[in-house]
Amino acid sequence: MSLFPLINQDFNRKLLLNTLENDRVANAYLFYGPEGGGHEGFALEFTAMLNCTSSNERPCGKCPSCRKMKTLEHANLQLIFPMPIKKDTSSDNKPFKSLSQSEIAEIQNIIRKKAENPYEKISIPNAKHISINFIREIKRTIYLTSPEKGWKVVIVFDAHLMTEQASNAFLKILEEPPPKSVFILTSSNPSNLIPTIQSRCQPIYFPPLSLSSLESVLSSKGITESSRRLIISLSSGDLNQAIDLSETDLTKLKESTLEILRAIAVWNIEKIYKLIWPVQGKIISKFGTQKNPV
């Protein structure tokens, strides 16, 4: 069974299960691919597999470990993600020290949403980088004994957003990892990771979701066939974007898309920018470039 509601990627699921069953778990992985394809969700799923106590199907979804993992509250799980860096924040501070109670509550709510929907991005307002503070906190805790049995797992979401200082500090941890620990880096831009970190990780590529998968999800939501075709053509295999588009006024979106195409046809730069910004990135991926995978 699957602990989290994940779509497709059966090949990678079997690959990870075989890795576990054959006792060939690597110290570090790089789960990469386009946004919304499931690489972040499978980082959570693999963590659940590693810590499930069932002797049969893993994750079983029933053992105490799976129940804790389902809410992302397992003691063996540590999450790293971009956080806002305030001017008065020292590099020695703990990552949450400079945040207000309301900011911490907002982050906790975002993580709860991630537990419910593994395709949801952990997107914190004003967060652009993963600072060295987060890595130093991991270094402080990863070598301590955990109250739970199983594997300690550190998931670094959007690992390509680590600062240079953070990357260098993280590399030192990868070079001397503690026993029974796994580091899972997720990224939609893996080429932005420093080569020495890439070389320490086992890469696993997660392709965009298939058209039939998106079709199935949208159909279950009662979206009409013509609307489904437009949404799928604009979502680039990104489930979150497809769902977001399904809740958008598609008539206005069609009009905006046609206007942008006309502006592109005559290469009216000023008009292109003027039209694209109000759409808030919903169709930018259609015209953007994708970096080559590692």
Topology (SSEs and partners):
Blueprint (H helix, E strand, L loop, with lengths): L9 H12 L6 E5 L6 H13 L12 H7 L6 E4 L20 H16 L15 H11 L9 E5 L7 H12 L5 E7 L7 H6 L1 E4 L5 H10 L4 H11 L3 H8 L3 H16 L3 H11 L4 H4 L7
Parallel strand pairs: 1-4, 1-5, 2-3, 3-4
Outline of this structure?
This is DNA-directed DNA polymerase. The protein is α/β, with parallel strands linked by helices. 47% of the residues lie in helices and 9% in strands.
Question: Overall 3D geometry?
Answer: globular
Helix content: 40-55%
Gap between N and C termini: 30 Å
CATH superfamily membership of the largest domain, which one? Answer: P-loop containing nucleotide triphosphate hydrolases
Query: So, CATH architecture of the largest domain?
Result: 3-Layer(aba) Sandwich
Strand content: 5-15%
Strand neighbour order, sheet with most strands: 2-3-4-1-5
* Assigned CATH class of the largest domain: Alpha Beta
Oligomer: single chain
- Per DSSP, the total helix count is 13
Q: Give the class from helix and strand content and strand pairing.
A: alpha/beta
Q: Helices and strands, in N-to-C order?
A: HEHHEHHEHEHEHHHHHH
Largest sheet: 5 strands, parallel
Q: Could you say what the CATH topology of the largest domain is called?
A: Rossmann fold
Whole-number count of domains = 2
Pfam families: DNA_pol3_delta2 (PF13177)
Protein name: DNA-directed DNA polymerase
InterPro entries: DNA_Rep/Repair_Clamp_Loader, P-loop_NTPase
List keywords for this structure.
single chain; 294 residues; alpha/beta; Rossmann fold; 2 domains; five-stranded parallel sheet; 5 strands; globular; disordered C terminus
